[in-house]
């Protein structure tokens, strides 16, 4: 007669559940220590590169040269610096989402857009 195959399965399952339980308790004990490490090891962000940012975020809608695509062109725009910053921060009803550019970098991005020719 063969052995019952359910017994090893149940033992392995109980061991797995026990390990998950004890590992989660260990993680909860380390929570404050991990949070402190994260705040201590904050790195200074690199300088904002508006050209690289626009290549990553803007070209999909505004076109490869930012001359227009599904969204209006940015080259030679008639918008003022303040209008650009407002649009980048709050978005438009026409489909551009707000908040893509970090608030600290709105000025640099607006300067970059106004420098496009």
TrEMBL record:
One of its GO terms (cellular component) is membrane. One of its GO terms (molecular function) is heme binding. Gene3D superfamilies: Cytochrome c-like domain. Binds 1 heme c group covalently per subunit. InterPro entries: Cyt_c-like_dom, Cyt_c-like_dom_sf, Cyt_c_BACSU-c550-type, Cytochro_C550_firm. Heme c binds at residues 58, 61-62, 96. Keywords: Heme, Iron, Membrane, Metal-binding, Transmembrane, Transmembrane helix. Residues 44-117 form the Cytochrome c domain. It holds the Pfam family Cytochrome_CBB3. The chain crosses the membrane at residues 6-28. This is Cytochrome c A.
